[in-house]
Amino acid sequence: KIIISTQQIEDGVQIEVSDNGNGIASGDLSHIFDPFFTTKLGDGGNGLGLHIVHNIVTAALGGTIDVESEVGEGTKFVVKIPLIAPKDNEDGLANVTNSTK
């Protein structure tokens, strides 16, 4: 089961996506946004999906993304983005600081 909810927050929008799936092991949780991190190597996973999501949310949109998970209980992602995306620099990347994972 997947639940998606949104709400307006100060200066932006919060999007929560949660599921009641298998969850993510605590040892893997701190690495899920790393490029090429996967638990399905050789099984079709290349480990770029959440890395790309993190870059879009933080760099392109100027927001943050956090994750909560417990094995056997599911996973919840919380994305917070401003109503107005940051202006791009000459290199095409938004001028944002490193956000929390």
Question: Describe it for me?
Answer:
It is a single chain. By secondary structure, the protein is of the alpha+beta class. Helices cover 16% and strands 32% of the residues. The chain has two helices and four strands, in the order E-E-H-H-E-E. It has helices at residues 26-29, 49-60, and strands spanning 2-9, 12-19, 64-70, 74-82. It has a four-stranded antiparallel sheet with strand order 1-2-4-3, with helices on one face.
Radius of gyration in whole Å, from Cα?
Answer: 15 Å
Shape descriptor reads flat
Mean pLDDT: 86
The quaternary structure here is: single chain
Distance between the termini: 24 Å
The helix content is 10-25%
User: What is the total tally of β strands?
Assistant: 4
N-to-C order of helices and strands: EEHHEE
Strands of the widest sheet, in order across it, are 1-2-4-3
By helix and strand content, what is the structural category? Answer: alpha+beta
Number of DSSP helical runs:
2
Strand percent estimate: 25-35%
Biggest pleated-sheet summary:
4 strands, antiparallel
Low-confidence stretches: none
Task: Write a concise keyword list for the protein shown above.
101 residues; flat; 2 helices; 4 strands; alpha+beta
Helix and strand arrangement:
Blueprint: E1 2-9, E2 12-19, H1 26-29, H2 49-60, E3 64-70, E4 74-82
Antiparallel strand pairs: 1-2, 2-4, 3-4
